[in-house]
From TrEMBL:
Signal peptide: none annotated. Residues 3-351 form the FAD/NAD(P)-binding domain. The keyword Iron-sulfur does not apply. It comes from the Bacteria. The lineage of its organism: Bacteria, Pseudomonadati, Pseudomonadota, Betaproteobacteria, Burkholderiales. Belongs to the NADH dehydrogenase family. InterPro entries: FAD/NAD-bd_sf, FAD/NAD-binding_dom, NADH-Q_oxidoreductase. This is NADH dehydrogenase. Keywords: FAD, Flavoprotein, Membrane, Oxidoreductase, Transmembrane, Transmembrane helix. It holds the Pfam family Pyr_redox_2. One of its GO terms (biological process) is aerobic electron transport chain. The chain crosses the membrane at residues 390-410. Its cofactor is FAD.
């Protein structure tokens, strides 16, 4: 049997392993399984990464949204191996995954080697600090549930401290304005930074309602969004950026554009123009790069962001048995001068593409070429709104949408991911369960 290994069970990898397992890993209508499918991930559970800003703001409890890889494997005809990819031997078609310790640091799983016929690398991306002094040490990135939870706990602690300050010291900013008692600085006004800033405004309001009555959510919790480019959401059309900026200003978010951050020190973010922005908490959301391990994979070529350079078949440049998808792959986007963008939408399309492509591979037919279809981008602005542009043949161009409808479209992206993992019937049940659960949970996770 053909041996498929998918490394990375994220937005793209888990969808691919699930579909390959369902189609080729199980006996189907009397037909024997055609392949073994193994998914490798460093974590035991999956969470859809675009939910992390909601986890950081406390509006999403990650434990209600996590999916156990081992259970998904059992239901969908694949095997799961926990461990971090550390080495690739292309000649032997073998990967090595690292040992996994238990919570006390004692060895739980040993280092293991797994052999493949076809390997798909889907290990996503990590935060890029661009070498800015102090950024890695003094700010929090949003790559993992642990980081998002750390931010949430620190934010709540800062608000509780401010509530109980008996003699609060009033500080003033460079313009002489009174500063909020808790100040959050978000570096990078791409989708993640913008979404987090809107979500945090909601968190401040809810915390004030949940017992922190002395905290004025509009005034005492400040959110500064810092962007080096001339406008927020630089990767999206200008009118989306303008509409979003207006909404953020209404929410009381302070927007600083054209400000390149040169240092993050404890309690302060400094910019090239000489500004020192007070920051009790700093989030770094200014860019991504591929995980370092990809540059050490038996000579596979990477670009300057460390992403694996792939052909339009998603095969790596020098090894036809190794494919890459999602954030960790650099794939040309024909008709533009850019690569396919690092988005959940792209990872989802590439997973669907590779699922079909793997059928061709098993049948000995030529592999198709991937074309990214941009359906637009949506940015969530808290519970009741979103803004973005819809694109595509249906509407013949790009259309600005905002409000509840945009929020509904935004949420449907996640629902599509759930449908890809569990089917449409279970997706509907999951949605209902989610709404029911919300009736007995606080609107912000407090502990
Ligand atoms: C806060 C936030 C908000 C976002 N919002 C949006 C949005 O609204 N819309 C959108 O389209 N995109 C959004 N994105 C981007 C989107 O999350 C990514 O583009 C998408 O998750 C990429 O999918 P992927 O499968 O390539 O990688 P990921 O989903 O990141 O999955 C990578 C997987 O690989 C595993 N892994 C990593 N390294 C190793 C290793 N060495 N060995 C084994 N396993 C490993 C990880 O544990 C993870 O499970 C957002 C991202 C963030 C952080």
């Amino acid at each position: 049997m053909h041996r498929f290994i998918v490394v990375g069970g994220g937005a793209g990898g888990l969808e691919l392993a699930t579909r390959l397992g369902d189609r080729y890993g199980k006996a189907l209508r009397g037909r024997q399984p055609r392949a073994t499918v193994t998914l490798v991930d460093r974590n035991p559970t999956h969470i859809w990464k675009p939910l992390l800003h909601e986890v950081a703001a406390g509006s999403m409890d990650p434990f209600t949204q996590e999916l156990e890889y081992a259970a998904q494997a059992r239901w969908h005809g694949f095997e799961f191996q926990q461990g971090e990819l550390v080495e690739l031997d292309r000649a032997a078609r073998r990967i090595t995954i690292g040992a996994v310790p238990d919570e006390d640091g004692a060895a739980m799983l040993p280092e293991r080697s797994l052999e493949y016929d076809t390997l798909v690398l889907a290990i996503g991306s990590t935060t890029h600090f661009f070498g800015v002094p102090g950024a890695a040490e003094n700010s929090i990135a949003l790559d993992t549930v642990e980081q998002a939870e750390r931010f949430r706990k620190r934010l709540i602690a800062a608000c509780v401290r401010a509530e109980h300050q008996t003699d609060p010291v009033t500080t003033r900013d460079h313009e002489g304005k009174e500063e909020p008692r808790v100040q959050v600085a978000i570096v990078g006004a791409g989708a993640t930074g913008v979404e987090l800033s809107a979500e945090l405004r909601n968190t401040a309001q809810v915390l004030s309602a949940y017992g922190l009555h002395k905290l004025d959510p509009g005034h005492d919790v400040g959110i500064a969004l810092i962007e080096s480019g001339p406008r927020i959401l630089p990767a999206l059309p200008e009118r989306v950026s303008t509409a979003t900026a207006e909404l953020l200003l209404k929410l009381g978010v302070r927007i600083l554009t054209g400000e390149r951050v040169t240092e993050v020190a404890p309690g302060v973010v400094r910019t090239a123009s000489g500004k020192a922005i007070r920051a009790d908490l700093t989030v770094w959301a200014a860019g991504i790069k591929a995980p370092a391990v990809l540059s050490q994979l038996d000579g596979l070529p990477v670009n300057k962001l460390g992403q694996l350079v792939v052909r339009r078949t998603l095969q790596t440049e020098i090894d036809a048995n190794v494919f890459a998808l999602g954030d960790c792959a650099a794939c040309v986007w024909p008709g533009t001068e850019r690569n396919v963008p690092p988005r959940a939408q792209a990872a989802h399309q590439q997973a669907s593409f590779l699922f079909k492509s793997m059928g061709n591979l098993l049948d000995g037919r030529p592999l198709p070429e991937f074309t990214y279809r941009d359906f637009g981008s949506l940015v969530s602005l808290g519970h009741f709104s979103a803004v973005g542009n819809l694109m595509g043949g249906l509407i013949g161009g790009s259309m600005l949408i905002e409000g509840l409808f945009a929020r509904f479209m935004y949420m449907s992206l996640y629902r599509l991911h759930i449908a890809a993992l569990h089917g449409y019937a279970r997706m509907v049940l999951d949605t209902v369960a989610h709404w029911l659960r919300r009736t007995t949970l606080p609107r912000v996770k407090l502990h």
